[in-house]
Structures are given as structure tokens and as C-alpha cells.
Amino acid sequence: MVIRLLHPKLLLMLCCLALGPLELLAQQLEPNASPEALDSLAIAWPDNTIENLQPWAEAMLSKQKSWRILQIGDSHIQAEYSVRAMRRLLPMLLGLQPTPRGYTFPFRMYGSNEPPDFSSRATGGWQAYLSTRDHQLGDYGMAGLSAMTWQPLATLTITLHPERGFTACPNRVALFFTPPKSTVTPLLNGLVPDTIDLKRGVADFSLDSASSSLTLSFQPASFPKEGFNLLGFSLQRSEMPLVIHAAGLNGADANSHLRNAALSRDVELLHPNIVILSLGTNDSYNTLFDPTRFADSIRTLLGLIHTGAPNAMVILSTPPDHLLRNGDTNPRVDVAAEVLRNLAIETGAALWDLNRLMGGHGSMHSWLNNGLTARDGLHFSVQGYDIQGRLLAVALFRMLQIAQH
Question: What global pTM score does this model have?
């Protein structure tokens, strides 16, 4: 694919200004900034690149006709405000139409927050299992959670609001589930799957037209006695060369993702060629944080990711600066960021240094003073996440530009 810009004026702004990030925030950010103003801010951000890009990764990306991006993380990713901003800006820079939302899990299953561009409703006594709560190995799915039902008449409906997330409604859907001991026939909007692989736990559906409402149900006669364990969906459009999957869970850290006994299979089912690992916030917030163990856990995660997607490039994202409950900057987050920088060099992974880009140690105070964080100084406001997502979109665009030339 030839990369082009939808708005030529943006190309002129891709050169970085001499200002540092905190000065840029103070001079250019307005409380009610328009999307276009936030785009300009992200594009003008200094030194925003994907670092440690290996020659083999450049060669791989240069041959791609489509990009399948998978971002794995924690609550910063589950809310999808940063992902939503990336889904808006990256396609625009690439000259593409809105993309499908990719990996989707109905977080309301356990009473949690869902991204703004969909809502879910379930019947039939579903039980949620979380790798952050259950603390044992299990088949949790890509984001680290699953939902089980034992009722053949159970249903799940996902209603999409694409205008809230800069996404497109799907005309293809993949359903992921724990491989059953017996047969099962899931239905989507009353349709039987085009194909179903019971050994891998995936059913593929083609819709006659793009749909904003998806209802999962079952043929009762083929419902497995041991129940059905839902691992999520992948919402796609057959003609789109870009999809951005977001797999985050509130409270997740490296170890909780390692509790997913089938992580490599889940990665393989999404076929990513770019995987972004955005962890370290919850790891370093823990007072028992051990940098050596954290490094070992990330190494193990990288191995599992490469097993599922051996030809994909992995980008390690450093955790953003944050505050402790007493309002002080957490010194452990600097250590976690340094561990990830060293692991990128050691393993050949690429690096997106969000910690450095936001200003480094103590910068969370400036983001807080500019209204870009939640009161806890740990999470961000919608606008703060918007800026992060745009920064990542610009960094990915620059990386793809390099690979294509």
C-alpha cells in the first residue's frame, strides 16, 4: 500500500518543534480544544518516534498490504479513549476510511466500564472470570477475562455506536471461545457460522451487510454440557487494510496476562503484524515491585506473543508517569520504564517511550495542572487519553512511512 495523507497540511507539521513536551502543553493546549487542534498538538510533539526499529521489521512492514495492530494493556487500554483517538488519526494520516473496532469483549459481564462506541446486554446467567481476580491459570481470552454460561437459551447482544469511536460497523465477525469437549453451534443474528474450528475455538461469520447490532445465541440441541466459555469477538470489514485491536483489562499487570494459559493461541487468532505491549503501571504501583521479576515476566510475555505471531514486530510502550495516593511521584515507574528500554535493546523489540514523551519523572503534575488527568493522578482525563492516542498514531505513521520508502 502507498501511504498518503488525507490532509496535505498535516504533512508540513510532521517536523518537530524545538519546544519540550511540557512547554508545548502549556502554550498550545486549550480546555475545549477541537479534534483538529489536538491533531496539530500531537503532530508537533517533539521526538515522537518508534525507537529501535530493526531492519527485519522495516522489511516486513514494507511488504504489507494491510496492518493488523494489537495493543495489550491495562485500564488505560480497556477504556479505549486513547485507542479511540488512535483509530481516528492513524486512518486519516494513511488516507483511509474509519476502521472496524477489532477485538471486542462485553465488559458489562462483570459490571465494568465499556468503551464509548458499544454497549452490551446479556441473558442466561453468564459468569465472568478475570485473570486479575481469580489468580490462577485459565483460558481467559485476549484481554484476560472470559464469560461462561451453562444455559442453552443464553444470549448476548452488542450494540455498536460507531460515531462515538470513529469506527465502522462490521460485515465479518470472528467469535472466540474455549474449545468444547463436545460440539457447539453458536449463532450470530440467527446465522450459522461460515466456518467453525472447535479445536481452536473460533467461528467465522459473514454478514449480508454491515450491522450495528450483533446477537449471539445457540442451537440448544448442540449446546455443550460443560457450558460455553466466551473469550470475545473480532469485528472486521473485509475491504479494510487496517484494524486496531485493543485488549486491556482494569488492574492488569504482566503477571495477570501470564495467567492466560492460551495467550499464544489468542494472539494467533487475531493475526497481528504489529503488537504493542502497554504494561508497567500496575506492576510499578505495587509496593512489592521487583524489577528483575518484572523483566522476567515481560520476557515470558514476549516469547508467548512470538509463538502466536512469529512474524509480527513487538513494540514495548513505557508506562506513563503517575502519582501515589499521597500525591508524590512514584519512583518505581521510572525503574519499570528503564527495564522496558533495556529489554527492547536486549530482545530486539521496538520501543515507544511514552514515559519520556510525556515529560519523564514528575511530569504527571504538569498533566494534572493542565486538566489532563483524573483526580488520582494515575489515570487520565478523556482529553489526556486523546493526546496519548494521537501521539501513538503519529509515531506509528512515521514508522510506516520509513518502512514504505
Answer: 0.94
